[in-house]
Amino acid sequence: MKSLVLKIGRSSPSSLTSGQTRIDRMASTRLLSRGEKVFRKGQSARQVYKVEIGCIRTFTHDRDGCRLVTGFYFPGDYFGLEMRGKHSVFAEAIAPSRILVIGRKALFSAVETDNSVANGLLNVTNLELQRAQNQSLMLRSSAHERVAHFLFELKKRNRRAEVDLPMSRQDIADYLNLAMETVSRALTRLEKVSTISFRTYHRIKVRTRKRLAA
Amino acid sequence: MKSLVLKIGRSSPSSLTSGQTRIDRMASTRLLSRGEKVFRKGQSARQVYKVEIGCIRTFTHDRDGCRLVTGFYFPGDYFGLEMRGKHSVFAEAIAPSRILVIGRKALFSAVETDNSVANGLLNVTNLELQRAQNQSLMLRSSAHERVAHFLFELKKRNRRAEVDLPMSRQDIADYLNLAMETVSRALTRLEKVSTISFRTYHRIKVRTRKRLAA
DNA sequence: CGGTTTATTGAAATGCGTCAACGATTGTGG
DNA sequence: CCACAATCGTTGACGCATTTCAATAAACCG
């Protein structure tokens, strides 16, 4: 068994990410239906976004057309933070969602009033860096561990024992770089050892972390 | 086969990373013998570093004590950039090396007053981010592809057809998340199809990229 | 040189992916 | 609200890539 720290569209504890901030007040709201795109890969990145309700997935494709899900974003999470001019991924709603849309210009000038622009950018970049490093760690562990830690992180975010899995098994598989069947089998096994129990396919009850890791 | 862009301690073409920069002028020099540690995981990160001669590996361990090599750093590369207080990895010299040691405090105060330093630091951090993202992509491809691209990236860095592999097969394996035997077999296969040829275990001649990918 | 470390090679075991069939859930129109 | 279709998830059988274990060979270092 390998160790793993997995973050799923996790926000930092900074003021930027918790509750209503000055930045959020500069935002407008947008409603999304299931499957609707927020932005496309290659589009110039003029806004950043924050999930209020629902769930967003970001993804890209490798040269063989295989889909790679790069993150799931839940209420409170910011996404679309790419610092270079163009979005490097697609973003779309997994479930009906409400998001905040924040103009990049306004954001950066606001950051400037708190700190220096450079420091703000550094912080954002460093968060992305941590995320990417955690993803690397995750991809080094076994299939069952990836699934278990995925669930654990979701639980940690939710704070309730009941966890929503708004995304499909295929989404999870493309995020963890596994076959959908492997994800399914891992979930079944976790249920067999009663680490989790299913309410529906998309809502489960997660027990202790220890048992998750087993 | 999956697509893959792998970067190994790659410097950008920016002024920061080639030759002497303003950041480098704040540095002192340190000599390291083979296997010597630069810093330890958990140590508070008071400096950042730049390789002048030799090769540095960074690594950590998973919960089972299995070693995970997170990067190889060659002349021109910066490492130890963790922005949070503590180093998240160990760093040690693979070969006798000379490195620059740059005080973090000086660096950060320079960041606040000097725009070029701030931009430089952003560049370096962005490079590290790219590196981590490429690592994630790399870990999604097959064993043979990982080895092939690893070699190709080394060649691209060196600019010579003759490539140094100062690290052991085990180092490569721990970096690519493969068994040492798998790395060895991949290399053997590449030699059989005469994509590479060995001078010694640690110096090879690499031919075209096309053949590497095969 | 001889001993130690490091790399290669082969054989067997295993984990995960693929393919295919089946079962459950969701959405739609009567 | 039901029935049906379409989608999504589960399960089993099998194959292949990679790991593991074990033996041998090559390089390194006193």
Care to describe what's here?
Two copies of one chain form a homodimer. Chain A has a four-stranded antiparallel beta sheet. A four-stranded antiparallel beta sheet of chain A has the order 2-7-4-5. Chain A has a three-stranded antiparallel beta sheet with strand order 9-11-10. In chain A, β10 (196-200) and β11 form a beta hairpin. The longest helix of chain A has 22 residues, at 117-138. In chain A, 35% of the residues lie in helices and 25% in strands. Chain A is built from six helices and eleven strands. By secondary structure, chain A is an alpha+beta fold. In chain A, α3 (143-158) crosses α5 (180-192) and α4 crosses α5. Chain A is globular. The first copy, chain A, starts with 27 loop residues before the first strand and ends with a helix. The first copy, chain A, binds a DNA duplex (30 and 30 nucleotides) through residues 142-143, 168-170, 178-185, 187-188, 200-201.
Using brief descriptors, characterize the structure shown.
DNA-binding; globular; 214 residues; 35% helix; homodimer; 4-stranded antiparallel sheet; disordered N terminus; alpha+beta
Count of discrete alpha- or pi-helical segments spanning 4 or more residues of chain A: 6
Q: What is the gyration radius of chain A calculated from CA atoms?
A: 17 Å
What level of helicity do the residues of chain A show? 25-40%
Strand content of chain A is 15-25%
How many strands of chain A? 11
Biggest interface, chains and residue tallies? A-B, 29 and 33 residues
* Parts with pLDDT < 50 across at least 5 consecutive residues of chain A: 1-18
Q: What is the H/E string of chain A? A: EEEEEEEEHHHEHHEEH
Strand order of the largest sheet of chain A: 1-8-3-6
The average pLDDT score of chain A comes to: 82
Shape of chain A: globular
Secondary-structure-derived class of chain A:
alpha+beta
Largest sheet, strands/sense/barrel of chain A: 4 strands, antiparallel
Cα-to-Cα separation, first versus last residue of chain A: 8 Å
**Assembly classification:** homodimer
